[in-house]
Design brief:
The chain has two domains: 4-147, Rossmann fold (3-Layer(aba) Sandwich), CATH 3.40.50.2300; 168-228, Arc Repressor Mutant, subunit A, CATH 1.10.10. Helices cover 50% and strands 11% of the residues. The protein has helices at residues 7-16, 19-23, 33-42, 56-65, 82-92, 107-116, 131-142, 148-156, 173-183, 188-195, 199-212, 218-228; strands at 26-29, 49-53, 70-74, 97-102, 120-123, 145-146.
């Protein structure tokens, strides 16, 4: 992979920092020492980094004692697992926001991360392309985020059907367009830009989709769409006319 052309953008993202990070008390956890070191450096000058751990128990203890409000972790830890950490951390700190990076983004692992309550899910392979900053932006504005690689895995996996009868006929053309955008891992802002509408319009359609699909959030809506075969995801969503 050649990221040379993206160097200016990645450096600018690093300089700008991120509002969510500045407002949060962040804990990080990973078994990868290189990733741990790079994240620690990245947080310099942003919000307080209150924990940097390689094990599930150590990170959980720091989340509680340091009143962390944001968790950035990977699924692989030196002891324990990232997904178990998320489940335990949210049990004691329900308001905690969580972004997890998966080393092996297979369907079962992704679904486990969703069930654990992760607000954002990215592939570790995407970490060096600005995906973490993009995920934080989406979590801050939209509440949840699945990066395109994660969405692609779900799309091409044979997810078992729920057996429920879903009201496909009640989805409008615009709702289907937004659903396709969600299934491509796009944020509300990206969908709005691609379809040339306002972010508020996209948010309105997302709310309608959640109601019609009986989904608790946008991530659940994506899983339902792929599980029930509701959409075929094109290379780009069509523009609304």
């Amino acid at each position: 992979m050649d990221l040379s052309a993206q160097i200016p953008l990645l450096q600018e993202q690093s300089r700008q920092g991120h509002g969510l990070l500045r407002r949060s008390r962040t804990a990080i956890a990973t078994a990868d020492p290189v990733l741990l070191a790079s994240w620690t450096i990245w947080f310099e000058g942003q919000g307080p980094l209150v924990a940097a751990c390689t094990s599930e128990d150590d990170c959980l203890g720091n989340i509680q004692s340091q009143a962390a409000t944001l968790l950035l972790c990977t699924d692989l830890l030196e002891s324990g697992s990232g997904i178990s950490l998320v489940e335990r951390a949210l049990a004691v700190q329900p308001e905690l926001k969580v972004l997890i990076l998966l080393h092996r983004p297979i369907a079962r692992t992704i679904l486990n991360a969703i069930e654990a309550g992760c607000h954002g899910i990215c592939a570790v392979q995407s970490a060096g392309t600005g995906a973490v900053a993009t995920a934080f932006t989406a979590i801050d504005s939209d509440g949840q985020y699945l990066d395109p690689l994660i969405s692609g895995v779900l799309h091409h996996s044979r997810l078992p059907s729920s057996g429920q009868s879903l009201p496909l006929q009640e989805l409008t053309m615009r709702e289907e367009d937004v659903l396709r955008g969600l299934c491509r891992g796009m944020s509300n802002e990206a969908i709005a830009n691609d379809l040339v509408v306002s972010i508020e319009t996209v948010k309105s359609h997302v709310s309608s989709l959640l109601r019609k699909l009986a989904a608790k959030d946008r991530t659940a809506a994506v899983v339902t769409a792929f599980r029930e075969g509701l959409v075929q995801v094109p290379a780009r969503p069509p523009r609304w006319t």
